[in-house]
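Key idea: predict the complex, not the pieces.
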Amino acid sequence: MRKILFASSEVHPLVKTGGLADVSASLPLALAEQGQDMRIILPAYRQCLEALDKIETVATVKLDGFHLPIEILQSTLPNSDLIIWLVNSPEHFDRDGGPYGTHDGGDWQDNAARFTLFSRAIVAAALDQLGLDWQPDILHCNDWQTGLAPALLANEVNRPATVFTIHNLAYQGLYSQDVFDSLVLPASLWHSDGIEFYGLMSFMKGGLIFADHITTVSPTYADEICSYEFGYGLEGLLSHRADQGRLTGILNGIDTQEWDPKSDPYISKNYTVKTMRYKSINKAVLQQLFSLPEKENVLVMGLISRLVSQKGVDLTLDAVGKLLDAGENIQLICLGSGEAAYEQDLRVLRARHPDKVGLHIGYSEELSHQIEAGADIFLMPSRFEPCGLNQLYSLRYGTLPVVRNTGGLADSVVNAAGSNLKNGFATGFKFDDATAKALEETLLRAIGLFKHPRVWRKVMVTAMEQDYSWEESSKAYQVLYDNLLGKV
Ligand code: ADP
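Result:
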């Protein structure tokens, strides 16, 4: 049994802005189930304190660069006995808003200080300086908010081995040198072989340079980030680490209890491969919910997304807009929030086609399950997608994903065409170019196939039979941990 400390800035169901939160709960749970001694460490945001029943203060510690001592609070992840540690600094985390910014989307001005404090607390826990008599063998950090931890640990003698997982290279935590100076970090870190990145401070680089091993969340994304197109200027460093055998892509799994059409409490009628016909009941309820005509033969397209350029929202608006104008027998049901311009464009699309477009701007766990269960296809025309979770949920719900051939989407969906279709391997629809035209053509393919219910049902069955549980992927992490402990 290994002791593993898993550090993340969001953990479902306590605080979530995207896939990181899902993974930060489901991976530690899978590892714990396989016998590892897991702890999760995260900031004590107000919403976490409000959501948890039993919380006790287990340590108080003073961190370099911060005036007030912080507390470590202990609780358990809801519906489990997995221990979580919350870094309690009310000045930094007890606020009304999201984990990274205000409700209306602006970043908190002091994010660099907030996540430096978080990283320093992770380091204290990793070195067993909290007086809790528990030192991890492995510290597993995630995304830029934890990137300073491997950097601050690098020269410590009794440190754990460190793993840093990139969930999205697009968010790097870049700040000015003035901010770096204000954080009282070791001056030696201000170096191109440290966390300096073209005159800026990069939290992400802390993980990329100093972690013993880097992972990212799909094999294809691991290759992509070593290229100019996807590397944001970090491709040289990442290629170097890949050449050293220190960069691995491991596809995320999903929580198969939470996302299970057989027992999902949010949906109207549970179903399995054998009772797939009940999916149409969920479709009818979904249409009702969004005040759209209840029609069985219309192709319902689902979309659940952060509304940002990465997700190809503009491609969807364009392609679906054209299909609607052309009078195709489709409905679009969309749940999301993000950039104001996309929200507005979606409102305009709905206003133009009120009987064909359903829209909920906002965040809703319940609706996201209902859309997965009720839609026929799920749209993910992402420009890049490190892993993507919704296409995995969609497969399990028999809601055929329409995806661009990139990152984790490329690794998890088999295109319904040619021999894939003939041989029964197809699970969804794929296209290459990040253009509205390519998406439109692919949607027309889906519309065409939908007119052949027997073939469609076969693709649904194949999709639903895919196994994207954590079973295999968590084993890949365990092998990595073992190798690392042998090597470091
Ligand atoms: P990313 O992390 O880039 O946002 P992923 O596909 O990895 O993309 O994960 C997104 C997660 O967030 C999924 O669990 C998805 O269902 C959820 N999600 C995104 N937007 C919403 C929303 N508006 N309401 C409910 N869940 C959402």
